[in-house]
Write a structure and sequence with these properties.
six-stranded parallel sheet, alpha/beta, six-stranded mixed sheet, 469 residues
Length: 469
């Protein structure tokens, strides 16, 4: 624990000592822990039923807490909601400690969450709720707690991927603190203390901080926060960029209005669906039919598309010098729309192949290009200059999938995968083995991200920021 704290000393302002995660020899020395560190310490001995490892009988558990507290020095002790007024609480107050009354729900969000927070606060100095949201409505409920109970000292946490935004925007939640890990999460969805402090600057956010983000499903793989947050910081722009998992773009927009977000990026699978909810769209969005960038303008949301530019930029030279005259595009979703449009605008001959041929046909009719079933992909071997993988195959949890496994590269093609994590997908590894030139999704991500940054802030993306996967 001391080593973990030393490794993260620049990123934490308070720490939690979890007795239930210590070895017997470490537990014996735990009473001295506060004297070994120079930040406040929360003492916790979590039961198995609350997500911990303690299997002691309740009386023995409370006795161990009191014994550990005896030297003083701890700032808080965590006591679960169903523990009635106890000897632990009395001992804590006699030592000048504050009591955190906590409630954990690893299954969902209780319907009576507001009254639970109020009840916890009335029985302790700080109310702590750690629950598991399963949809956007659940997340909105957690953000509403502060509206209902603004003056109550509290810690509100949404666990799992749905709750990541609640950990980053903890000040927006009205929470006095948030929990980060030392790199190994001890609770679902926990972010490292380093990321919270350096990437999101969560402790510096205030009422004037502009909230931006990326919405998708899945979305936690996104590296966009690593582009935008350093950019905001570099130009001294008071804003944060947060990942939001959502089940639909409609429900997310309700949350975006609630949080008064200024803009957001759109990724799979919402790039097409979002268009119908926008009050203003650019010519590119109208022609492409998909949108990856949304900004707030007076009384409405405005949609733009930076995917087409991000895609073309890495292959612009090869198009200009005639190296790329024909392309095979795998996929017919929102990203494929921008890609086919961009290639068409540069007079590249395009053939779309897709698992569901009707979707390929529909996109092909829109732009006057060719279409075929993915099953027939081998027919185009040696006949195209560029092969583009424009589906989400390769992304988690599809890392082992190569949608073009029936296609044998000749080695003369340029292979381009828009998936950026992992950098080398199964598709690109197959192309590399054949001797093809490769183009990476990371380059596309950076270029489209820079344009998004300009839409969000009105400033060019700083040139001297180095971002790596």
């Amino acid at each position: 624990n001391l080593k973990a704290l030393a490794d993260n000393k620049d990123y934490v302002d308070i720490c939690e000592l979890r007795l239930d995660l210590l070895s017997p020899s470490e537990v014996a020395k735990a009473a001295d822990f506060p004297s070994m560190v120079d930040i406040p310490v929360i003492l916790t001995l979590r039961r198995v039923s609350d997500g911990g490892k303690c299997t002691l009988q309740e009386k023995a558990r409370r006795s161990l807490l009191i014994d550990t507290m005896k030297n003083g020095g701890f700032s808080y002790v965590d006591i679960e909601d169903d523990v009635k007024k106890s000897d632990v609480e009395e001992a804590a107050h006699s030592l000048g400690m504050k009591v955190i009354r906590s409630y954990h729900d690893f299954e969902g969000v209780p319907a009576d969450i507001f009254s639970r927070v109020h009840s916890l606060a009335s029985r302790g100095d700080v109310a702590k709720i750690a629950v598991t949201p399963h949809n956007t409505a659940d997340v909105m409920t957690l953000f509403r707690i502060n509206e209902e109970l603004k003056d109550v000292p509290k810690i509100i946490i949404g666990m799992g991927e749905w709750g990541v935004a609640t950990r980053i925007l903890y000040k927006k939640m009205g929470s006095i603190l948030t929990f980060g890990s030392n790199g190994k999460a001890v609770a679902p969805g926990m972010i490292s203390a380093r990321e919270l402090k350096l990437l999101y600057r969560a402790d510096q956010l205030n009422d004037n901080t502009g909230i931006y983000g990326i919405v998708g499903n899945p979305v936690m793989h996104s590296l966009s926060p690593q582009i935008h947050n350093p950019g905001f910081h570099k130009i001294h722009y008071n804003a944060v960029y947060v990942p939001f998992l959502s089940e639909s773009i409609r429900s997310f927009l309700t949350l975006a209005e609630m949080l008064r977000m200024r803009g957001f990026s759109v990724t799979v699978p919402f790039k097409v669906d979002v268009v119908k909810y926008l009050g203003n769209i650019t010519r590119e969005v109208k022609q492409i039919g998909s949108c990856n960038t949304v900004v707030r303008v007076p009384n409405m949301w405005k949609g733009t598309n930076t995917d087409y530019y991000g895609f073309i930029h890495p292959i612009e030279k090869e198009i200009d010098d005639g190296r790329i005259k024909s392309a095979l595009v795998i996929g017919a979703g929102g990203a494929a729309k921008a890609i086919v449009w961009a290639l068409k605008m540069r007079t590249v001959k395009v053939m779309i192949v897709n698992r569901t041929k009707s979707k390929a046909d529909e996109l092909a009719r829109l732009y006057g290009v060719g279409s075929d079933s993915l099953d027939n992909i081998s027919q185009y071997e040696g006949k195209v200059d560029l092969v583009v993988q424009a589906t989400n195959m390769g992304l988690h949890p599809y890392e082992d999938v190569n949608p073009a496994e029936k296609f044998h590269f000749s080695g003369k093609e340029i292979a381009y995968d828009i998936v950026y994590k992992p950098k080398y997908t199964k598709f690109l590894l197959a192309a590399e083995k054949a001797g093809c030139s490769l183009k990476f999704g990371w380059d596309m991500l950076m270029e489209q991200g820079k344009l998004q940054f300009e839409s969000f802030t009105g400033y060019h993306y700083p040139k001297d920021i180095e971002i790596s996967m």
